[in-house]
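Quick one: structure for this chain?
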Amino acid sequence: MHAIVKCGLVLGGLALLPAIAAADDFKLSNNQRISCGRGLSAGKLSTATCRSYAYLFNTKTSEYFRCSVSLSMTRDNKEIISTQSDGGCVKKPRIFDADSSYSFDATETEPPNTNSFFGTGGYVVWASDNTAQKVRGCLTIASGLGSDVSKCVDMKFE
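Got it. Here's what it folds into:
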């Protein structure tokens, strides 16, 4: 069953990006994560929900998109009753002001039942200029109050 859910997420995630990813200046993050949870409902129904995030980065402008895909499956003891999926990408601001040739990586915090203190946690994007010794880390934390807190820090080289 996990293989079916993971396959659906991978295929669903790929369907989100073809129009954007066709440009030569975009790179998909290497650090995709997936988290899943289960719940029981009345009538011996169980629901499994999985969510995954990825980042699409413009290597020229340092703008990026935070993409998510989710899949929920409800079943009883004999059959799958329903499935629902959703996904999309949200454009985020530039990390660097000037156009250049940039590299990046991104990662999500673990689900709330592990080390996250602020509900759904947050994420970090690392970007570097491929033509200069320049690295910037941008952290975003969900405040739990309706707006996220974001801060970018330029790395100092000693």
